[in-house]
Amino acid sequence: MKIISTNKKAFHDYNVVESLECGINLVGCEVKSLRRGEVNLNDSYCRIEDGNLILIGCHIKNYDKGSYSNVESRRDRRLLANKREIMRMLGKVKEKGYSIVPLKLYFKDSLVKVEVALVKGKRDYDKKETLLKKDADRDLQRTLKELSVRH
């Protein structure tokens, strides 16, 4: 598995409830751009329309050497997932505070996969608490490393 892009902002802004691996419907030149890592998942999200999971706001740069086969870089892309999983997520999204966000884009063998997650938004104090916990863990690791070097 080769990770192409991750949505770090999603981990900062949301609590991940559950995740799901989906395929993505792409055009040839988009795959070439993905192989070069020219993609941005920030500010992208998913919506369920007519029983299909749609990725909105994902920017895949146009391939330089592509001509007529280039498509709009911010177009909506259909995600390929099981209908039952989509309907289960739809039921959760209708509850207050839940949404669907892409976490990572990666190659699995020769296929492009998207990990989408059902998330619940964090409050400001939750974000501060997460940062404080991360700092404390980093300090703890630093002191443990110093102790192991001395002995």
What does this structure look like?
There is one protein chain. This protein has 151 residues and is of the alpha+beta class. The protein is built from 4 helices and 9 strands, in the order E-H-E-H-E-E-E-E-E-H-E-E-H. It has helices at residues 8-13, 28-35, 83-93, 124-150; strands at 2-6, 14-24, 39-40, 45-49, 52-56, 59-60, 77-80, 98-108, 111-121. The chain has a 7-stranded antiparallel sheet with strand order 1-8-9-2-7-5-4. The protein has a two-stranded antiparallel ribbon with strand order 3-6. A hairpin with a 2-residue loop joins strand 8 and strand 9.
Q: Which properties best describe this structure?
A:
single chain; two-stranded antiparallel sheet; 4 helices; 9 strands; alpha+beta; globular; 151 residues; 7-stranded antiparallel sheet; 34% helix
Q: Separation of termini? A: 38 Å
Radius of gyration, CA atoms, in whole angstroms: 19 Å
Which strand order do you get reading across the main beta sheet?
Answer: 1-8-9-2-7-5-4
**Proportion of strand residues:** 35-45%
Using the alpha-carbon principal axes, give the shape: globular
The overall average pLDDT, rounded, is 85
